[in-house]
Amino acid sequence: MPLTGVYAPIVTPFDAEENINYAVYDRLIEFLLENSIAGIVVGGTTGEVYALSEAERLDSFKFIKERVNGRAPLLAGTNAGATRDVVRYSRLAAEMGYDGLMVAVPPYSRPNQRELLAHYRAVAEAVTIPIVLYNFPWRAGTEVGYEVLDGLTDYAHVIGIKEASGEMARVYEMRLRYGDRYEIICGSDDQALDYCLWGSQCWIGGAASCAPRQHAALLNATQQGDWATARTQMEGLLPLLRNMESGGYTQKAKLGCELQGFPVGAPRRPLLPILEEERREFEKVFMKAVGKA
């Protein structure tokens, strides 16, 4: 299952009581599919999976699987603090018919490389659907290192890694070390053009939840070899991507959805809405990026 195109880690809409707003979820799914999104990630950080109960997470998996109904590939984010829970979520997602999994480093425990390899091996041995690793050491506290990647090469269904370290040197090293064995998926939004220059065919970016068409246009241009257009597209997106990565990423992804007409609500606490001055600056940058300024 090669991953190509832009995958959106969909936000989780909440109502005023912080319940999941499934009516808005439905509208948001259609918006993404109508605006050139190649696939959807359910249960990602941008979807506030860390703040969902188990029942809410599984209900979201089921709801989105039924609504998309085969129109686009679906990846289930099955991360959790304990290996046994990641295995259980992964098996359930596979049983629901998900096309693949995205599995990050378990939070808070900070496993060493030997422990992290054992963790990923347990997941790989529990399912047969494709697995995308997720390297985001700033958030997880532990890097998916080469010891882990070396140890997973025999699992053919561990197909790639979403790389969000911000270190392009890792992309170079992975290309030299593994060739085409692993798909290197862009997870560092402001480096998307650089990733594509090094052969990446897929971009999983949280901002695609609110600016899907602009993300898809950039990636499509690179896949057609039109690098001049791709650079123009990147120049248009870069202020938005940098603004989001400066802080309040999840809040801004949800605010972007609001500005597109989808009342997804505020994030669940402990996150709070961004301050008014930040909001005004984000709105200005966002509306320019999506051509509504």
Give a description of the structure.
There is one protein chain. With 293 residues, the protein is an alpha/beta fold. The chain has one domain (5-217): Aldolase class I (TIM Barrel). The chain is built from twelve helices and eight strands. The protein has an eight-stranded parallel beta sheet with strand order 7-6-5-4-3-2-1-8. Helix 4 links the parallel strand 4 and strand 5 (131-135). Helix 1 crosses helix 2 and helix 10 (227-245) packs antiparallel against helix 12. The mean pLDDT is 96.
Cα radius of gyration in angstroms: 18 Å
* Oligomeric state of the chains present here: single chain
Relative strand content: 5-15%
Distance between the termini: 39 Å
Low-confidence stretches: none
Layout of strands and helices, then pairs:
Blueprint (H helix, E strand, L loop, with lengths): L4 E5 L12 H13 L4 E4 L11 H15 L5 E4 L5 H14 L3 E5 L8 H14 L4 E5 L1 H4 L5 H6 L6 E6 L4 H11 L4 E4 L5 H6 L4 E3 L7 H12 L3 H19 L3 H11 L16 H14 L4
Parallel strand pairs: 1-2, 1-8, 2-3, 3-4, 4-5, 5-6, 6-7
Helix pairs in contact: 1-2, 2-3, 3-4, 9-10, 10-12, 11-12
